[in-house]
Amino acid sequence: MARYFIGLMSGTSVDAVDAVLMDFSRMDSPLVSNFSQPIDRELRTEINRIISLNTWPQETRALDDQFVRVCAEAIRHLLQKAAIDADQIEAIGSHGQTVFHDPQGTPPVSIQIGSAGQLARETGITTIGNFRQADIAAGGQGAPLACAYHARLFRHAREDRAVINLGGIANITFLPADPSKDVEGFDTGPANTLLDAWVRHCQGQDFDAGGDWARSGTVNTQLLERMLQEPYFARPPPKSTGRETFSLAWLQAMLEQHGVSLEAKDVQASLVELTARSVAQAVENHPLPVVRILLCGGGSNNDYLVSRIEQGMGAIPVECTDTHGAPSRWLEAMAFSWLAKRTVDGKPGNLPSVTGAGQEVVLGEVHRPE
Predict the structure, then answer these.
(1) What CA–CA distances, in Å, run from 169 to 126, 157, 172, 190, 241?
(2) Model confidence over 239-262: pLDDT tens digits?
(3) For residue 292, what pLDDT is reported?
(4) Average pLDDT over residues 79-83
(5) How far apart are CA 345 and CA 235, in angstroms?
(6) pLDDT by residue (tens digit) across 122-155?
(7) Of residues 337, 351, 331, the one with CA closest to residue 240
(8) Are the C-beta atoms of 200 and 213 separated by less than 8 Å?
(9) Is the distance from CB of 198 to CB of 267 less than 8 angstroms?
(10) Total Cβ atoms within 10 A of residue 252
(11) How far apart are CA 33 and CA 327, in angstroms?
(12) Rounded to an integer, what distance in angstroms lies between the CA atom of residue 55 and that of residue 293?
C-alpha cells in the first residue's frame, strides 16, 4: 500500500520552494514527482530584507501568509503533475524559510516563516513544521537535520564516506562504515549564500551560472586567508550557521579590512575558494579516514566550485549523489518528507551526535487541516 509524503524545502538563496512527492512503500525509488515553485522577486526581496536585519522583528509574521501561498501553489502543481489527490497524502514535511538562526543565543532560537497550521488549512493535508524546535529544546543546534537521511541513503558497510551538501550554507555528514560508530556532521561554512549575494550585488543576477564568472577571476590569497580567520571555522562541532554570520555585510567588512580594491570577479573566485578550502579542512581535520565524497545541493551544479572541491580533496574521489540513486537537486526536500514520515510513525528524526542534543527526539509540530 502506498505511503505518500510531501517534502518542502526553501534554502538561504530564497529563490524557490522545492517540493517532492515520495512513496515510502517503494524501497528502491521512492521519489514519485518533483516541482520547484519560484519565489517572486518582491517577496524574495522582503524576506532578504528581514534576514539582513539579523533579528526577529514582529513584521516577520506578516510574511507567513505570502510564503504559505507559495508553498501551497507548489503542492498544487506537484499533485497535478503526479495525478495524485490530496487525500492520498499522509503528511507534508515543511522546513519553512529560515529568517533567523541563533542556537547559541539566550534563549536559543531558530525561526522559520511558513505557518504549518495555515498550510494544512490551505491544502487540506496534515502538515508538520518547526522541525528544529524539539532538537533545540533538547540542547541541540536544531541543524543540520538532513544528516540522518544521508545516513539512511548512503552509509556503506565497506567504506567510510562523507556527504557534502552545497546549499546556501555547506554542511557535511561523516558516515563511518563501522556500525558501532556514530554518524557526525555540522555546517562547514558558506557555499551559495555568499556567491549569490556577491553576483547579485555586482551584476544583478541571481547566481553565477556554472561558476563561469568566478572562473574568470583570480583568487586573492590575502583576502582568502582573512576570511578563513572567521572564528566560526575554528569552532569545534556541534555547530551550525547561516546568514546571521555569513552575509553580504560580512563580506564587505572583510573587503574593507583588506584595504586594497579588488576586481569583483576576483572576489567571486576567492569566495569559491573559501567554500572549497573550508570543506576540505573539515574532511582533513576529522578522524574518519574518508575514502569517498558525495556532493548534493544546488552548488553541485556549479562546475567551477565542484572542480575546486575536487582539487582540494586530492586523491579522494568526489561524486554526485545522482550516481548513487538520489538526485542532488531534490535531496533536501526528500529529507523533509522522510522526517515527516518519522514524525507520523512516532520515531526520532535527529542525531544527537550531529546536533549536540541530549537525546533523540521526535521532530516537528503536527497540524491537521481541521
Answers:
(1) 29, 29, 10, 5, 7
(2) 999 999 999 999 999 999 988 899
(3) 98
(4) 98
(5) 35
(6) 999 999 999 999 999 999 999 999 999 999 999 9
(7) 351
(8) no
(9) yes
(10) 13
(11) 12
(12) 36
Q: Which amino acid is at 100?
A: F
CA distance 122 to 62: 17
Rounded Cα distance between 294 and 157, Å, is: 16
Q: What's the CA gap between 54 and 182, in Å, rounded?
A: 34
Residue 230 and residue 92: Cα distance in Å, rounded?
37
Alpha-carbon distance of 96 to 64, in angstroms, equals 9
- CA dist 238 and 68 (Å) reads 31
**Closest listed residue to residue 167, CA positions, set 351, 3, 352, 336:** 336
SS (H, E, C) the chain: CCCEEEEEEECCCCCEEEEEEEECCCCCCCEEEEEEEECCHHHHHHHHHHHHCCCCCHHHHHHHHHHHHHHHHHHHHHHHHHCCCHHHEEEEEEEEEEEEEECCCCCCEEEEECCHHHHHHHHCCCEEECHHHHHHHCCCCCCCCCHHHHHHHHCCCCCCEEEEEECCEEEEEEECCCCCCCCEEEEEEECHHHHHHHHHHHHCCCCCHHHHHHHCCCCCHHHHHHHHCCHHHHCCCCCCCCCCCCCHHHHHHHHHHHCCCCCHHHHHHHHHHHHHHHHHHHHHHCCCCCCEEEEECHHHHCHHHHHHHHHHCCCCCEEEHHHHCCCHHHHHHHHHHHHHHHHHCCCCCCCHHHHCCCCCCCCCEEECCC
- 34: which 3 cell numbers? 518533483
pLDDT in tens, 150-179: 999 999 999 999 999 999 999 999 999 999
Give the phi and the psi of residue 159 in degrees, each rounded to 5. -150, 145
Model pTM above 0.90: yes
Side chain identity, residue 8: L
**Number of Cβ atoms within 10 Å of the Cβ of 187:** 27
